Amino acid sequence: MAGSTTHQATAKDREARLVVAVDGPSGSGKSSVSREIARRLGAVYLDTGAMYRAVAWHCRSQGVLDDPEAVVAAVQNIDLALSVDPDVERVVVGTEDITEAIREPGISAVVSVVATNRAVRELLVARQRAEIDGHRRIVAEGRDITTVVAPDADARILLTASAEARTARRSAQLGGTVDATALAEQVSGRDARDSSVVDFMTPGEGVGLVDSTELDFPATIQAMLAEVDRQQAVNHPNHPNHPEGDRA
Ligand code: DC
Q1: N or C: which end of the chain has fewer CB within 10 A?
Q2: How many angstroms separate the CA atoms of 166 and 149, rounded?
Q3: End-to-end CA distance of the chain
Q4: How far apart are CA 224 and CA 23, in angstroms?
Q5: 190 C-beta closer than 6 A to ligand 1
Q6: Which residues are annotated binding-site positions?
């Protein structure tokens, strides 16, 4: 039951090493949900989709999007700074703040070009692992975090929602500015292209599933934190939530 476990992290709990991996398709709400669980868990937040978007923006600005080798070279040399503070959304390439630019439909339309380039993925996966290793407590979110980037995470969750719910959420996010056909392409079309290189629609072995179709935001947060606790209890016998652990 989503509401049956309340996460009451003690000061000591909040010092322990914790890696939470979250994957899911577009519009599943995983960015805002992951950001909020990072706050609740006293962790930093890594938005790996923002890395792919920043790379797409950079390659487009260099005019190399249609040249796979030049794309790889651009990624090798990119000077990318990404905030991992869950309260600060900031993406900078060189001296240019592209926080807003990477969310534009023009970037959403081309990001799969870089996300489906295997050499680009290898470079970004290495950066993501370094970022995870560099922080004591981190929630990392994307498409291949539970399976490729951090298969040894303390908790791994696939956050899904029905296609209808995801399209409706994306529409609300964009303030009704995108017509229905373009929206369906953004949500389902992009997922179809991206899932040709990573499967983020079915949970991998040992990955927990949270379906938010019928849940509002607070209920989704509850369900996610309950799943983090459940997996920590299973993976770490000394965790306070372990069924046979010391609860004193
Ligand atoms: O989550 P998002 O919409 O910001 O992701 C942007 C793109 O990056 C999307 O096309 C999927 C891709 N992506 C990926 O392939 N692997 C990740 N770990 C994160 C995102």
Answers
A1: C
A2: 24
A3: 24
A4: 12
A5: yes
A6: 24-32
Q: Is the CB of 147 under 6 A from ligand 1?
A: no
* DSSP symbol at 3: G
**CA–CA distance from 11 to each of 36, 41, 202, 226 (Å)?**
18, 10, 35, 18
Residue 102 CA, closest ligand 1 atom number: 4
pTM: 0.87
Our answer on whether the CB atom of 137 is closer than 6 Å to any ligand 1 atom is no
Is residue 4 scored above 70 in pLDDT? Answer: no
At 135-147, the pLDDT tens digits run 999 999 999 999 9
pLDDT-derived band at 202, boundaries 50, 70, 90: confident
User: Cα(79) to centroid of ligand 1, in Å?
Assistant: 19
Q: Is 18 close to ligand 1, i.e. is its CB under 6 Å away?
A: no
Q: How far is the CA of 29 from the centre of ligand 1 (A)?
A: 13
Cα–Cα distances in Å, from 90 out to 59, 98, 225, 239? 19, 8, 25, 34
Judge whether residue 192 has pLDDT over 60.
yes
Q: Tell me what pLDDT residue 39 has.
A: 98
- For ligand 1, atom 10, name the residue with the nearest CA: 112
Q: Are strands 18-23 and 137-142 parallel, antiparallel or unpaired?
A: parallel
CB of 143 closer than 6 angstroms to any ligand 1 atom: yes
User: Domains, the chain, ranges and CATH?
Assistant: 13-233 (3.40.50.300)
